[in-house]
Design a protein that fits this description.
Keywords: Flavoprotein, FMN, NADP, Nucleotide-binding, Oxidoreductase, RNA-binding, tRNA processing, tRNA-binding. It catalyses: a 5,6-dihydrouridine in tRNA + NAD(+) = a uridine in tRNA + NADH + H(+); a 5,6-dihydrouridine in tRNA + NADP(+) = a uridine in tRNA + NADPH + H(+). It comes from Salinicola socius. FMN binds at residues 29-31, 83, 152, 182, 213-215, 237-238. The chain is an alpha/beta fold and 343 residues long. It has two domains: 15-256, TIM Barrel; 265-340. The protein is built from 14 helices and eleven strands. It has helices at residues 36-44, 65-70, 89-101, 116-120, 131-144, 164-174, 197-205, 219-229, 246-256, 265-283, 285-300, 308-314, 319-332, 334-340; strands at 15-16, 19-20, 25-27, 49-50, 55-56, 81-85, 106-111, 149-156, 178-185, 210-213, 233-236. Strands 4-3-11-10-9-8-7-6-5 form a nine-stranded parallel β-sheet. Strands 1-2 form a two-stranded antiparallel ribbon. α7 links the parallel β9 (178-185) and β10 (210-213). The structure holds flavin mononucleotide.
Length: 343
Amino acid sequence: MRDLPSPQTDRPLPRIGHHTLPNRVILAPMAGVTDRPFRQLCRELGAGLVVSEMVTADSRLWNSRKSRQRRIHRGEPGPRSVQIAGGDPQMLAEAARLNADAGAEIIDINMGCPAKKVCNKAAGSALLRDERLVADILDAVVAAVDIPVTLKIRTGWCAESRNAERVAKLAENAGIAALAVHGRTREQRYTGSAEYDTIAAIKQQVSIPVFANGDVTTPQRAAEVLAYTGADAVMIGRGAQGNPWLFREIEHYLRTGDEHASPCAEEIAATMQRHLRALHDHYGEYLGVRVARKHVGWYLAASDPSREHRARFNRLEQATQQFEFLHELFRGDAAIGNGIHAA
Ligand SMILES: Cc1cc2nc3c(=O)[nH]c(=O)nc-3n(C[C@H](O)[C@H](O)[C@H](O)COP(=O)(O)O)c2cc1C
């Protein structure tokens, strides 16, 4: 990818329907990760838009604890984007309606997820193989709600059928308000590197906002990808795990061309504590303690090569023990705090 200038101040900020985003950095939907506590944290640290974990379009399944918890977004700052996944146009339309009634301000349709569970039901990225069905779904969902509908896709099913450009056109014609593209095919899952040529080609062909997704983990990379593709924003998934500060760092770099200072050990400790508290509150102590293990594992990944700290943390069963652990970790060795951000 060629080197290009970083400040991105000369172009209008992306709009999704009547919502103008405050910047060009978006948190990608990640099932099991972008729950309400994590969305809130990323928003506070500079994400211009956050997208919820996907919710199945089959509302008969919404009474499970997991679905109920995923659908709590009332009171969150806007715009609240809720992702739905499924393969049946009418079911997706009904799910969009119900989520809009429950406070969603943007509906995002998942045609990017490679997960088996979703694909066995011909949903997620499996839909890309059937352009007729894609069009039917987009028409049905757009007609069902009076809030903007966005779409998230991969570049295609496999290398031989990279049809994202055609799908992007279908999306624009159907009235989709913005399109996020992960620069991999479904067949690639998460292997290899994301490619951005398809995203650049799509951007040339449609006039709706395009968000570039895949392997963006640094401010410099974000600037390169925006410049190379002409996309309106970058969407960040795995790069934000254990590193919610990435959003403000990218935002700052895109706006000024300068690097934002890394968070100091005190800020890292305070952020992790806030995150833990929010997880315990959101899920209750039993589940919150378990969900916290995953996030703390990501925070500690770079500073704990022997996995000793993570193994200890994972054995803790109570919320207070988790707070004490963090307290000791940062009191005992500030270098650990400083090392965390290298993740
Ligand atoms: C744990 C995990 C869960 C994901 N869940 C979803 C999902 O619910 N909906 C979706 O559209 N994409 C999902 N994705 C894909 C991401 O949104 C994103 O497209 C992908 O991770 C590539 O971006 P990245 O390289 O910045 O991580 C998930 C990815 C991960 C790693």
